[in-house]
Design goal:
By secondary structure, the protein is α/β, with parallel strands linked by helices. It has 2 domains: about 130 residues; about 250 residues, 3-Layer(aba) Sandwich (Rossmann fold). It contains 14 helices and 10 strands. The chain has a 10-stranded mixed β-sheet with strand order 3-2-4-5-1-6-7-8-9-10. Strand 4, helix 14 and strand 5 form a beta-alpha-beta unit. Helix 3 runs antiparallel to helix 4, helix 9 crosses helix 10 and helix 13 runs parallel beside helix 14. The longest helix has 26 residues. It is globular.
Length: about 425
């Protein structure tokens, strides 16, 4: 291990142990502490800290390493050299580990040049160790067994109450999938997302990363949509108390929302992990919206690329923690996603919520990996109380409806 890498690991380890806010950043960057335990005191101390913390809290872990903490500080480098952005830290760590592996290979070749071919073969095997593969026949057989169980349990296609047609159209709001919802500014993407979340909370725990409205403003929006009362009546004090109590009794303990401030990707990840640990039935997470995520900026990386990296990370998190992730995104004047359409490449489904005279409001599947192409859901959108309800599924061509379809729900047995 080079001296620079050794200092990097020790410095990052000291921050990891002493600063809980740095921990989700390092975790998301993929630092593999366990694999460096033999070469780095810092990595060894992180291992001791995390083991102790598993049975308690941060202070318990800190107590377990307190006697070596000062020494770790003394052998650490300048702490400002450790990036506090996930993408930058991951890039730095990847470069160090790559350089270390090549350096180790070079030393072995110099010490034993006759074994060069064997050493190179072992090096390739080591590099491929992180790539998993299975026999296709075995994979299909196992998946058929799992699918049969899911069908019998009614979880093969996850539907949201009140949005059965949309659920069918996109192949379900299934765990591990990432859906992007686009639309013009101010048309009603947030209203649609709130409608969906409130209905989804009847079946699963739901989390809403709100990065636009204050608690005061978004609570009014929930109040209007949840009680089906018009904005006029709510602001005039004509909201029926019984209706409010009924809404709250159905929702309590089923959904959380953030306070409207911009969040970094590590903050979002840490927040989701904490919720999942407390609420195993977390099934839906909404991120409102993509360009509000505080992402690392650099001259070398364009905004769309940063957003795309964030989308990939959120998809990986959805797969790991078994929830469906919905990311909201705005459109520009040309009708393209503001952060560039390339940011949508990794999404399973891309929905566009728009007005389409004379059909009214449509939720069109611009990309539909788990459903049919060229479909859209026509909805009733009552702006007086932000209620959105399904009407019918239609086929569209070049954004224009052509042939109407009669909705027939799929049935599984």
């Amino acid at each position: 291990m080079t001296l620079d890498f050794y200092k990097f690991l020790n410095t990052a380890a000291y921050l990891y142990i002493t600063d809980p806010e740095f921990q989700p950043i390092a975790d998301a960057a993929g630092i593999k502490w366990e694999s460096h335990k033999r070469d780095s005191l810092g990595a060894e101390m992180v291992s001791v800290y995390t083991t102790a913390r598993a049975g308690g809290d941060h202070d318990v872990g800190l107590f377990a390493v307190q006697h070596n903490l000062q020494f770790l500080f003394d052998i650490s480098d300048d702490f400002t050299k450790i990036p506090n952005k996930v993408n930058v830290l991951a890039h730095r760590y990847a470069n160090y580990t790559k350089a270390e592996s090549f350096e180790a290979l070079g030393k072995k070749l110099m010490e034993n040049p006759e074994a060069g071919e064997k050493l190179l073969e072992e090096f390739q095997i080591t590099n491929a160790s992180g790539v998993d593969h299975l026999d296709v026949a075995e994979l299909v057989a196992n998946e058929h067994i799992n699918l049969t169980k899911e069908i019998q349990a009614g979880t093969a296609l996850v539907t949201v109450p009140g949005f059965q047609m949309l659920s069918e159209m996109i192949g379900g709001f299934n765990p591990g999938r990432l859906i992007m919802v686009t639309g013009d500014t101010g048309f009603g993407k947030t209203n649609w997302a709130i409608n969906l979340c409130l209905r989804a909370s009847e079946k699963m725990f739901t989390a809403y990363a709100n990065m636009e409205m204050s608690y005061k403003d978004i609570s009014k929006r929930f109040m209007v949509i949840g009680t089906r009362t018009s904005y006029t009546d709510v602001f005039a004090g004509r909201l029926a108390l019984d209706s409010l109590k009924s809404f709250m009794s159905r929702l309590i303990g089923r959904m959380v929302v953030t306070d409207g401030r911009t969040l970094s990707l590590p903050q979002i990840e840490a927040w989701i992990r904490i919720i999942k640990a407390k609420q195993p039935d977390l099934g839906l997470v909404v991120i409102d919206y993509d360009q509000k995520i505080d992402l690392p900026s650099s001259r070398e990386e364009q905004e769309w690329k940063s957003v795309q990296r964030a989308i990939i990370k959120l998809e990986d998190l959805a797969k790991e923690l078994n929830f469906c992730c919905i990311v909201m995104a705005q459109l520009n004047r040309e009708g393209d996603i503001s952060s560039s359409h390339r940011a949508t490449f990794t999404a399973h489904t891309v929905l566009n919520f728009r007005d389409d005279p004379p059909n009214g409001a449509l939720i069109q599947a611009k990309k539909n990996r788990h459903g049919k192409k060229n479909q859209a859901l026509r909805v009733n959108y009552d702006e007086s109380n932000s209620q959105i309800s399904e009407v019918e599924v239609i086929t569209v061509t070049a954004d224009k409806p052509e042939k109407r379809l009669t909705f027939k729900p799929r049935r599984y047995s």
